[in-house]
Amino acid sequence: MAEKASGDKDIARVASIDEKHHFQGEPDGSSIIAGSEGVTEHELATLRHVADRLPYTAWLVVIVEFAERWTYYGTTNIYNNYIQFKLPPGSKNGSVPKSLRGGNIVAGALGQGQQKSFALRTFNSFWVYVTPFVGGILADTLWGRYKTIMIFSIVCLLGHVILVASASPASLQNENAALGLLALSILIMGLGAGGIKANVSPMIAEQYTGKLRKETLPSGEVVIKSPAVTIQSMYLWFYAAINFGSCGAISASFLARDNGYWVAFLVPTCLFMLVPFVLLIGKKHYVQTPPRGSVLIETFRVIGFALGPRWSINPLTTIRNIKRDDFWDPAKPSYYEEGKVPAKMTWDDEFVGEVGRTLNACTVFLFFPVFWLCYSQIDGNLGTVAAGMTLKGTPNDLIQNLNPISIIIMIPIFDRIIYPFLRSRNINFSPIKRIYTGFLVAGLAMVYASVLESYQNKLTPCRGGEFDKQPAACEDANGVHQATPLNVWIVAGPYILVGMSEIFASITSLEYAFTKAPKRMKSVVMAFSQFQTAVSSALNFALVAVNVEQKFVWLFGSFAVASWIIGTIFFITFRGLDRREAELNAIGQGERQGFQDETPETTTGIQKV
């Protein structure tokens, strides 16, 4: 973050040169906003901003995301029990025999223990959030988003079929064979899911092609139909679709408990077949951004040309050179005399500005690994905490579905009540402020989890004595699980709080990634945003040794402190971006010299003539 100050200067300098990012309105506010349908500066400042209607193709993309996320969470949310716990007494498929379902017996299959379960689940998360780069690069440079999603959906479907085979009763008779098939399915499904993930979120936003305009409501009020507000609303509902899909894990928990894991994995596999079907329905109607093969190569070359003259044997000198106001100049064709422009320099000055502003804006995402570390605790560790409580027949991995359910309930409240109320009071709850709030709430969730686990440790029947074990592993001499008197639903708090933090931070990151990227690089920038979850998973790998129940109190508490500290540093570092929101939204909205734009683009920036 040491480069932020110089980055601010560079953006300001480029903006002063580039007229379309510079405000030159009339003093009386009568200037027309460029790209709008007759909206003046005064009207923009005084009229209420509301979201526009969404095209039906956007809802088709929502259905695709819903089906894909159902199948993802409908499998991964039961991985913890599937991998960690052994087959229940008398079971061949992982289900709990009917006579034992009213007690504290949990479904299980592979019996690999907490640490191996954590390691495999962490690798799965890492892999799923690394592979979006593959899908993003292929979409932006070769296939386009639609074709990329279609191809990777077939890949993902193959992985689901292998997962079902891994959980068959025949496979479970040989734990090594079942474990090997599980690992193979994780690799294939992760590749497919990552390829879809990088492209589906920018694809939904580009379905909206409306412009800034006035509209009179039935009440007689004149309002501004704002593309920026529309994009914000669109991603709220897109995230709601993700969490509706997440609720698929509710059925998965009961299917695993009552019918075995092969059935629990088969249901989402069948549902996944909706993805290619829905894609085909809207094939002729989707707004599609064609790939442009050289954009990534050009981006790396721009960075190379800019860095080339700045390197020094002395690292401090290199850092000082990078901070220079003219850092990007060697990458611009105008920097060279006529006839001496390098042959590899196939871009114009504006593209250099796009790369510079995008890199500065996207450093926002570098803070997110700490946020995702907090989120990762509801994926398995809190399930282990729940396993030590009084279940009364409730599957311990069912509780985590309170996270998507709470998000589904809260999103309409935020979209229809809280955010419009703040806008009506001229309170600028900007992306940077929303993300910071997400960090604070995530930290609060970890405090709740830490206090709860500390209290449960004091109540476990296995505290001290011959059978001194942690709550989830507490058994008597006959191997029967001994639960604490705490009701399992008490663990709901962290799931709900993390859900609220996602509305502030995660949804806003999707919005931010789309609006701050040049149109030809949206999938790759989205992949970079999602890559931070992979970084979080890599950090989790380093913490495998402390991801055991006896250290949960310390682990949760540490994540709380880290979230608050890193979130505060994030806000201090990037609060200046709030003042440049309109300018950053205008990145890549102009035409490139020598290139023709094939598709309309959402007007998210404010440009004046």
TrEMBL record:
Family the UniProt entry places it in: Belongs to the major facilitator superfamily. Proton-dependent oligopeptide transporter (POT/PTR) (TC 2.A.17) family.
Any coiled-coil regions, as ranges: none
Organism: Lyophyllum shimeji (Hon-shimeji)
Lineage: Eukaryota, Fungi, Dikarya, Basidiomycota, Agaricomycotina
GO biological process: oligopeptide transport
GO molecular function: transmembrane transporter activity
Alphabetically ordered keywords of this record: Membrane, Transmembrane, Transmembrane helix
Principal subcellular localisation of the protein: membrane
InterPro entries linked to this entry: MFS_trans_sf, POT_fam, PTR2_symporter_CS
Record-annotated membrane-spanning stretches: 126-143, 150-171, 177-196, 235-255, 261-282, 359-378, 398-422, 434-451, 488-512, 524-546, 552-574
Name the UniProt record assigns to this protein: POT family protein
